[in-house]
């Protein structure tokens, strides 16, 4: 009789204990989740850093073979392309390199199968994954695999305010064919000259971490964005809203928008590879003049080693 009377009480007590355990587990999960997310981002950031290291080494191996840096673009009609195809032999992609037609535009039908191949080396793991996007150049439409890494090809000289550099605002680590950039041309130092950085997330437009409902404001959205295309951009400085163009006093230099700025999905900054093969994390607090100084090859700026 005693056992029968006490049974409901034990059941009720067990239910209370279960609810307490569930509540404790919920609290622990909420406390651990940020740590787990931070650990995952740290791993993705390390993979992204390794991508940049491989790209920088490929560029240096290209320079060793051809005595010049890879061309940032070939704009000649019939074999238009960016810097991506040029380094294929040096990133363990000999098969794709063998199929790629350098005597055709990157978006030509003969290269359709090649540009549709998504290469992890050109994708940041913290971004939005593999993406296919339309390429529309000179009325020719094709589909290509997106790439998150871009090289700077110039800066807004009218906003920079330095006459000596304003006349040479396109002097960067890579140059357009038929010009060839020699290492000896980089008088600012290889360790202080940016080669490639992030402009992740295309074809979508992102401003300050938020995807926009339309990519109408994304400059050259239909011809820039796939890894074999013209993966270069004019560096610009922005205001606090992340989209209004600003001068040297601009408050936003990194992670403003992925239209004409350095942009990543890493909290606090973005990765960049330098000509000497080093990789650095550029913080969102980076000064505008230092950022532009890292882009130019002969501005003779004094760059703090802790940039």
From TrEMBL:
The keyword Ubl conjugation does not apply. The chain crosses the membrane at residues 12-36. It comes from the Bacteria. Gene3D superfamilies: Glycoprotein, Type 4 Pilin. InterPro entries: DUF1559 (IPR011453), N_methyl_site (IPR012902), Pilin-like (IPR045584), Pre_pil_HX9DG_C (IPR027558). Residues 37-289 form the DUF1559 domain. Pfam families: N_methyl, SBP_bac_10. Keywords: Membrane, Transmembrane, Transmembrane helix. This is DUF1559 domain-containing protein. It comes from Roseiconus nitratireducens.
């Amino acid at each position: 009789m005693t056992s029968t009377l006490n049974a409901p009480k034990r059941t009720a007590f067990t239910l209370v204990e279960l609810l307490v355990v569930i509540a404790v587990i919920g609290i622990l999960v909420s406390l651990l989740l940020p740590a787990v997310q931070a650990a995952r981002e740290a791993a993705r950031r390390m993979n992204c850093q390794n991508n940049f290291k491989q790209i920088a080494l490929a560029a240096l191996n290209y320079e060793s073979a051809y005595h010049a840096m890879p061309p940032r673009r070939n704009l000649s009609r019939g074999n238009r392309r960016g810097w991506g195809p040029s380094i294929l032999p040096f990133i363990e992609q000999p098969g794709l390199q063998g199929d790629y037609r350098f005597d055709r535009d990157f978006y030509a039908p003969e290269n359709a199968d090649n540009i549709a191949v998504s290469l992890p080396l050109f994708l940041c793991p913290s971004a939005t994954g593999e993406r296919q996007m339309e390429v529309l150049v000179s009325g020719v439409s094709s589909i290509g695999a997106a790439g998150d890494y871009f090289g700077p090809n110039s800066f807004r000289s009218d906003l920079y305010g330095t006459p000596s550099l304003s006349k040479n605002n396109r002097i960067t680590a890579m140059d357009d064919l038929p010009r060839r950039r020699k290492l000896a041309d980089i008088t600012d130092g290889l360790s202080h000259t940016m080669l490639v950085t992030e402009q992740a997330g295309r074809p979508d437009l992102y401003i300050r971490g938020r995807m926009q409902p339309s990519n109408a404001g994304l400059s050259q959205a239909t011809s820039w964005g796939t890894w074999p295309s013209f993966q270069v951009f004019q560096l610009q400085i922005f205001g606090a809203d992340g989209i209004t163009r600003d001068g040297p006093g601009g408050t936003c230099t990194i992670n403003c928008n992925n239209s004409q700025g350095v942009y990543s999905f890493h909290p606090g900054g973005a990765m960049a590879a330098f000509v000497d093969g080093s990789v650095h994390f550029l913080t969102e607090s980076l000064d505008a003049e230092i950022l532009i100084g890292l882009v130019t090859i002969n501005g003779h700026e004094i760059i703090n080693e802790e940039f």
